[in-house]
Write a structure and sequence with these properties.
Number of domains: 1
Number of helices: 1
Radius of gyration: 21 Å
Distance between the termini: 69 Å
Structural class: mainly beta
Largest sheet: 9 strands, parallel
Shape: globular
């Protein structure tokens, strides 16, 4: 989908249905079926059944729902991704994130909760961690 400088989770320009350019500001809810690239400003909500790319200079104030997403810009809102979410080093997310797979470059920031559902994994603490004995307790036992 993308070359080396582009993410595998983000759409290529060939399959993109909608591009919101850097000089465009959209206010309102956006709902689509295809790939979406946002380079400008969007205030509202975003929902696409396919892939989403948010460019480095993009500013988003929206709850986001997509199949896969690649974020390089600023997002204020909750993000729900069914597949893979990739955050570049310039990404800033202020909101809760729910995704199956999360990839973050050094420098990417999230202020919110991260929920990555897991299945078939159980944690069993069969032996409780005991407090180390003090020197006095060790001497008294002898």
């Amino acid at each position: 989908m993308f070359n080396k400088q582009q993410s595998s989770a983000a759409p290529s320009s060939k399959g993109v249905e909608t591009i919101i350019g850097p000089s465009v500001k959209v206010e309102g809810d956006f709902k689509g079926e295809g790939d979406l690239i946002i380079e400008g400003v969007l205030i509202g909500n975003i929902k696409t059944k396919n892939n989403l790319k948010i460019g480095t200079n993009a500013i988003i104030q929206a709850n986001i729902s997509a199949n896969n997403a690649f974020i390089s810009g600023k997002v204020k809102g909750n993000i729900h991704i069914k597949g893979k979410l990739e955050l570049s080093s310039t990404a800033l997310v202020l909101g809760d994130v729910k995704t199956q797979v999360l990839s973050m470059e050094s420098g990417a920031l999230i202020k919110g909760n991260i929920d990555m559902p897991v299945s078939n994994i159980s944690y069993q603490d069969e032996s409780p961690v005991s407090k180390p004995k003090s020197a006095k307790e060790t001497v008294e036992e002898k």
